[in-house]
């Protein structure tokens, strides 16, 4: 079942990626925004049989990828969905990038939790939750450093990628939304994640045990 879900999610993501790359608003921004998808996709494909993830996590990773792809196609400040929310909620800026950074905390936190628990790197779920939040915040911090490097290297050419929309506290808001996403994942989705998580395959029995010769 997990294989079918992973394959279906992969097809949807690849189709969206192809469509978004036809005529994005800014080609350089598109490349920078979809780069995490281009990195993660082959890794997930290569590890699908050796370490298959839960179906829940495959779906969430695909949703995160679609958020990134949509932001890359339009740039985060111009995504129509965010513009609609901006008008509906009477906001001063397009809030779509907040959703992107929420997902940046939400999905990596659940991915870290699954790896930690299934790999038996930690025994307690409280410690797994704490470390998963730490991983999500590390991902967020690294992304902010990437944005800083892009600003230094490209100057005003990085404005579409940064998407600050004139907010001097944009970096702090980005990391706060990642923290909020990781907390929601750990508090609100832990039980569902446990129910959907695939348990590790049993280790082969040593020779002489279980019928081995």
Structure description:
By secondary structure, the chain is mostly helical. The chain is built from nine helices and no strands. α6 (125-154) runs antiparallel to α8 (170-188). The protein is globular and about 45 Å long.
Which features characterize this protein?
213 residues; mainly alpha; 0% strand; globular; disordered C terminus
Describe the protein's topology.
Elements: H1 2-20, H2 27-47, H3 55-74, H4 80-89, H5 96-118, H6 125-154, H7 159-162, H8 170-188, H9 190-196
Helix pairs in contact: 1-3, 2-3, 3-5, 5-6, 5-8, 6-8
Q: Give the proportion of residues in helices.
A: over 70%
Pick out the low-confidence regions. 200-213
Shape: globular
Largest sheet, described in full?
A: none
Rg, rounded, reads 19 Å
Total beta strands: 0
Task: Name the helix and strand elements from N-terminus to C-terminus, one letter apiece.
Answer: HHHHHHHHH
Amino-to-carboxy terminus distance: 34 Å
What is the beta-strand fraction?
A: under 5%
Question: So how many helices?
Answer: 9
Mean model confidence by pLDDT: 85
